[in-house]
Specification:
The chain folds into two domains: 39 residues, no CATH class; 145 residues, no CATH class. The chain is built from six helices and four strands; from the N terminus they run αββαβαααβα. The chain is elongated.
Length: 186
């Protein structure tokens, strides 16, 4: 019995040190190397405070829409839906998002809708959309706001963030920052 208990206690102690000590310190150290030192990026605009690194809910047709959220943009419940592509509830939710998008963006063909506008991210809090997701919304916003489509395209290009280190991940746009810049076009 001793031959099993002592190695198990040693392994438990080692894993406790690694998982509850070394790993959190490593993650904390990496976070300190970021511009915000591991803290939220807060933007103040129009007398309000926004978290730029968390998705915001934009449903008004005057604004670029965010990626859907499985947790209704609630950071306290960050999670995905965990429903697979064969789940009927998931398929119904995606179809509902497609139908809603098409109603608010007449003249857009279903094939033109980028996947990030109809599927939620893994955390449900992704603050970014693809460049294509922004471009597909230009006609609606230009018509409602009375802004030339070319001006909106230039705004999107100016707000586009390159891949990390120039090669990791796709180009992306922070929806909150894009919409705040859009308000400045007035």
């Amino acid at each position: 019995m001793k031959e099993h208990i002592f190695p198990a206690i040693k392994l438990t102690a080692l894993l406790l040190l690694l998982c509850a000590g070394a790993y959190p310190l490593l993650v904390w150290g990496i976070a300190q190397a970021t511009p915000q030192k591991g803290k939220a990026e807060i933007i103040e605009a129009n007398g309000k405070r926004f978290y730029a690194n968390l998705a915001q809910k934009f449903t008004d047709d005057h604004y670029f829409q965010s990626r859907p959220s499985a947790v209704d943009y609630n950071a306290a419940g960050s999670a995905g839906s965990n429903k697979g592509p064969s789940n009927t509830d998931y398929l119904a939710a995606v179809q509902s998002r497609i139908d809603t998008f098409l109603v608010h963006n007449p003249g857009i063909d279903k094939k033109e809708i980028p996947v990030d506008l109809i599927t939620a991210s893994g955390s449900g809090l992704d603050p970014d959309i693809s460049v294509q997701a922004a471009f597909v919304q230009v006609k609606r916003i230009a018509k409602i706001r009375g802004i030339a489509e070319q001006n909106l395209r230039e705004l999107i290009i100016n707000q586009t963030q390159p891949p990390l280190a120039g090669m990791l991940g796709p180009e992306k746009i922070n929806v909150l920052q894009l919409n705040l810049a859009l308000d400045q076009l007035k």
